[in-house]
């Protein structure tokens, strides 16, 4: 259940002040990405191309921006892609598409299906524990390339991005902290019961008015309400730990209940698929839809959410705007 395990998001960006493939020293940001299908740019297609998770390797996925399917579960770019744009560096490629000598701009280790139900998908996804191990391999290579002192500085300036609702996210977070990570951004959870997939489940249960599944939304609220206390406690316990929380719950609910405010005409059904709360194949007009498939937003929705994360007001992202973690003024 991709978006159910996806709307809880950490964000992490490491500042590489050393050339790994260049001879001249220069400061560059590098983006390391962890999580599930909301962030997965195509890693899963290298693990087991024949699994059910690979539907997003087919058209019309990718149609709005890339013009071909990349493995992203949307019609175009995802949140990490827009963060890369705002931070003025290239799109971060999937882990399996880059040589380990060429991670100057970062690595995306996210894997669709690695969230709440990861235990059911063994062998077909990269779970969070494995993503952390792969990142640790990268940090070891970094130390060999630039030395202990320089790599420590690079990692301490990092903002590490997660998208998962897995309750075990704390262990990978602490693992990153142990490697030197200090800046973390968390998305709280939106009204998950209002996803087209959840509305369809409600219909199967005999709820015929198209309403949201309150049980799923209430669980998301419980998760979200615990986050501020948890992160404040981590801030007290871990020297140098910095965090910010993006109020995804607010903007996601608002875009569902007031779609025209965000430029959408449809927020109850999705653009691609079949069934009462899904389009028939591709809708041909993704700009009008909040959801591309029954779990994942469209590129336009991701772009609007990232703008609020990057430079939103305190009621949307606090105590820091994401751009401040990059030390950028614009």
TrEMBL record:
Gene3D superfamilies named among the record's database cross-references? SGNH hydrolase
* Annotated signal sequence range: 1-22
Keywords carried by this UniProt record: Signal
InterPro entries from the UniProt entry = GDSL, GLIP1-5/GLL25, SGNH_hydro_sf, SGNH_plant_lipase-like
Matching Pfam families: Lipase_GDSL (PF00657)
**A single GO molecular function, which one?**
lipase activity
Looking up PANTHER family in the UniProt record yields: GDSL-LIKE LIPASE/ACYLHYDROLASE (PTHR45966), ZINC FINGER PROTEIN (PTHR45966:SF38)
Task: Describe the family membership recorded for this protein in Swiss-Prot or TrEMBL.
Answer: Belongs to the 'GDSL' lipolytic enzyme family.
Protein name listed in UniProt: Zinc finger protein
């Amino acid at each position: 259940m991709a978006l159910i395990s996806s709307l809880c998001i950490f964000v992490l960006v490491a500042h590489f002040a050393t050339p790994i493939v260049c001879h001249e020293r220069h400061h560059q940001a590098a983006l390391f990405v962890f999580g599930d299908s909301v962030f997965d740019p195509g890693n899963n297609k290298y693990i087991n191309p024949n699994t059910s998770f690979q539907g997003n390797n087919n058209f019309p996925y990718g149609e709005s921006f890339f013009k071909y399917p990349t493995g992203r579960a949307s019609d175009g770019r995802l949140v990490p892609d827009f963060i890369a744009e705002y931070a003025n560096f290239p799109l971060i490629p999937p882990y399996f598409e880059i040589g380990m000598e060429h991670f100057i701009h970062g690595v995306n280790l996210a894997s669709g299906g690695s969230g709440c139900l990861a235990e059911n998908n063994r062998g077909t996804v990269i779970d969070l524990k494995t993503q952390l191990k792969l990142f640790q391999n990268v940090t070891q290579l970094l130390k060999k390339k630039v030395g202990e002192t320089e790599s420590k500085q690079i990692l301490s300036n990092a903002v590490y991005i997660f998208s998962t609702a897995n309750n075990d996210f704390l262990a990978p977070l602490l693992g990153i902290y142990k490697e030197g990570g200090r800046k973390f951004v968390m998305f709280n959870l939106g009204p998950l019961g209002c996803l087209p997939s959840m509305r369809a489940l409600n219909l199967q249960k005999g709820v015929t008015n198209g309403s949201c599944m309150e049980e799923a939304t209430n669980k998301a609220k419980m998760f979200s309400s615990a986050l501020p206390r948890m992160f404040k406690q981590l801030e007290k316990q871990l020297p140098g730990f910095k965090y910010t929380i993006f109020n995804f719950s607010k903007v996601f609910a608002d875009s569902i209940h007031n779609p025209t405010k965000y430029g959408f005409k449809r927020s109850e059904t999705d653009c691609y698929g079949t069934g009462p709360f899904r389009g028939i194949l591709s809708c041909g007009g993704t700009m009008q839809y909040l959801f591309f498939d029954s779990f994942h937003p469209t590129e336009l929705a991701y772009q609007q959410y990232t703008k609020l994360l990057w430079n939103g007001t305190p009621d949307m992202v606090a105590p820091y705007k994401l751009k401040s973690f990059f030390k950028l003024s614009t």
